[in-house]
Design goal:
With 378 residues, the protein is mostly helical. Helix content is 69%, strand content 0%. The two termini are 24 Å apart.
Length: 378
């Protein structure tokens, strides 16, 4: 528990590389020993860090592994952390239907269990999903439930208890800008107390949503986030700045931040933001290339590893055993790789990757000891 709290604190303080390394150390110990509960736990916490770092493809794979391991064996409150991080990754990957399916599988379309710390996170993640689905009334309801849970638990950290951000976004859409601005100012005050670039930049972007003159706030947000490891927030701020410049009829000025947003979104698998940046660039009179969203360079490290093994002729189960992940994780990576490479079959992988990869070493068989005869996880 101490190590978990310490790693969560690193994430909330924007020390994302340190958090990923800490989780990686746990995963490296757990994988060769077939220690599935530790493997799932390390992947779960790493997913939270990877989402904030804007590495959405890898975050989704980690969160899905943890979620699929815990769902059939753990009580509902124990699956909520996994569910929250999986929802966040799927929303940013623009897989809104997949996020809804995960909610249904976990039985969390209604009110989460009482007294569970992670229920706060699930409600906030579900509110972000509802916003992406253009369902602001439901998003506001979830944000208000999250506010009540945060008050019960005494949680004030603006990253962990972000409900004001989701509520303010919904209120803007619903036409209550005054209430939205009040919440945005509260969020900014808490974020200034925390002092991290990720929290401050996100709060400034939120406040800009509620004001008639958003440009100074957005320019400040982009500057604060420029050197931060919180790449998801930086990409959001770039997109918001470019969109605001375009709406102010400064279309030429809008193109640079929008192109940067599209590039970063494509590199990290932030497909929701990439789609929006592409639309804004078209509206600004640009004709953006889709190269940031496609080709071998768009693959995440995990997608590239899986694609290389598949190109060598290994099946999904063999790849899963080699990499100590679930077959479903392999399917997820291959689906993303096929989309980015513009191909439809494994036979096309080697050519799409640019060169025929060398045959890898013989696969490890450690995980066979912790799988059932059908290949499912015990």
């Amino acid at each position: 528990m101490l190590a978990t709290v310490a790693t969560l604190t690193l994430i909330l303080d924007d020390e994302l590389a340190a958090a990923v390394a800490q989780c990686g150390a746990v995963i490296d110990v757990a994988r060769p020993r077939g220690w599935l509960i530790a493997l799932a736990h390390g992947c779960m916490i790493r997913a939270m860090a990877l989402v904030r770092a804007g590495q959405i493809g890898d975050a989704e794979a980690d969160a899905r592994l943890a979620f699929e391991y815990k769902l059939p064996v753990a009580p509902a409150p124990a699956t909520l952390f996994c569910l929250s991080f999986l929802l966040d990754a799927l929303v940013e990957a623009d897989d809104l239907a997949g996020a809804d399916l995960a909610l249904t599988a976990a039985g969390q379309q209604g009110e989460p269990p009482a007294g569970a710390l992670a229920a706060l996170l699930v409600l906030q993640s579900r509110a972000r999903l509802r916003l992406a689905q253009h369902r602001p009334d439901e998003a506001l309801a979830d944000a208000r439930m999250a506010a009540a849970r945060a008050a019960e638990l005494g949680v004030r950290n603006p990253v962990f208890a972000s409900w004001r951000a989701e509520a303010a976004e919904a209120l803007v859409i619903l036409g209550d800008s005054a209430q939205a601005q009040r919440l945005a100012r509260e969020q900014l005050e808490l974020s200034e107390q925390l002092g991290t670039p990720g929290a401050r930049g996100a709060a400034l972007r939120l406040l800009a949503r509620t004001t008639a003159d958003p440009l100074p706030l957005l320019e400040r947000a982009v500057t604060i986030l420029a050197g931060s490891p919180a790449r998801l927030e930086h990409t959001r701020a770039l997109l918001a700045l470019g969109s605001a410049l375009r709406r102010a009829n400064r279309r030429a000025d809008a193109r640079a931040p929008l192109r940067r947003a599209l590039e970063q979104a494509g590199q990290g698998g932030m497909l929701l933001l990439a789609r929006r940046a592409h639309q804004e660039l078209n509206a600004a009179g640009a004709r953006p290339r889709r190269s940031a969203l496609s080709g071998p360079g768009a693959l995440t490290p995990a997608e590239h590893r899986v694609a290389l093994l598949a190109a060598c002729g290994h099946g999904n189960r063999a790849i899963a055993e080699r990499l100590y992940v679930t077959p479903r994780t392999v399917e997820t990576h291959l689906t993303h790789a096929f989309q980015k490479l513009g191909i439809r079959s494994r036979a096309q992988l080697a050519a799409a990757l640019g060169a025929r990869p060398a045959q890898p070493a013989q696969p490890a068989a450690v995980m066979r000891q912790v799988r059932g005869p059908s290949g499912t996880w015990r």
